[in-house]
Amino acid sequence: MAVVEKTQAPQPPAHVAIIMDGNGRWAMARGLPRAAGHRQGAEAVRRAVRSAAELGVGYLTLFGFSSENWRRPLSEVDDLMGLLRFYLRREIAELHANNVRLRVIGDRGKLPADIVALIENAEALTAGNGGLSLIIALSYGSRQEIAEAMRRIAQKVAAGDLAPAQIDEELVGAHLQTADIPDPDLIVRTSGEKRISNFLLWQAAYAEFVFLDTLWPDFAHEHFEEAIREFHRRERRYGAAVG
């Protein structure tokens, strides 16, 4: 009698990062204000967090609001800030109950003080959780992050605490906001756009990219699975030759 060997399912990517794009187009296609698209986008965030945990992803980073987004009309920025307040107040208890750790990267100096307080409270509440790590990038720009890291390194050199010869990739990475977070294995962008938009430039050096035509408010579990299936079809060589 032949013995049938069970094939082991491939491990999910440890860190998935998502550029959430398409809220405005989703709303426009339905004759709705952009704020309606952002509200539906918040529901997609809930689905994505749940899917990441179910699929065994360890880290999920969501690009929520870029440093460039401050240039949008004031009314839209106000709507986004209001939605962020609502999310932080409504979702944190559930995230905590599901053992999710919340972290926020980005320039908090530009955020309203009450939102910064909500973020700090949420991070403190969930700091001890050992399940999914949810990282939300708010008022975030990767070039700004790298420039700030360079300033801090330069200050250490100027003070005599660091020699220029000691500056290497590991040191630079240690001065980024993601210092203790593994680099993303997979970066997903929705809405059909194929660009990185100043997101995790340093950290994405060896990430696989998957671009989905789906608008972010329609993003569901099957789209997350689709992106991971495509990730598993890739051969990750990290610059090495094959064969």
UniProtKB/TrEMBL annotation:
Query: Cofactor binding mode, per the note?
Result: Binds 2 magnesium ions per subunit.
**What exactly does this protein do?**
Catalyzes the condensation of isopentenyl diphosphate (IPP) with allylic pyrophosphates generating different type of terpenoids.
Q: Which family does it belong to?
A: Belongs to the UPP synthase family.
Which residues are noted in the entry as Mg(2+)-binding? D21, E208
**One of this protein's GO BP terms?**
polyprenol biosynthetic process
Cofactors, names only: Mg(2+)
Hey, what's the signal peptide range on this chain?
none
Q: How does it assemble?
A: Homodimer.
Any idea what this protein is called? Isoprenyl transferase
Broadest EC class assigned to this enzyme: transferase
InterPro entries, sorted: UPP_synth-like, UPP_synth-like_CS, UPP_synth-like_sf
Q: From the UniProt record, which GO molecular function terms apply?
A: ditrans,polycis-undecaprenyl-diphosphate synthase [(2E,6E)-farnesyl-diphosphate specific] activity; magnesium ion binding
User: Which keywords fit this entry according to its UniProt record?
Assistant: Magnesium, Metal-binding, Transferase
Record-listed E.C. numbers: 2.5.1.-
The residues responsible for catalysis, as annotated, are: D21, N69
UniProt: substrate binding residues: 22-26, 34, 38, 66-68, 70, 72, 189, 195-197
Give Gene Ontology CC terms: cytosol
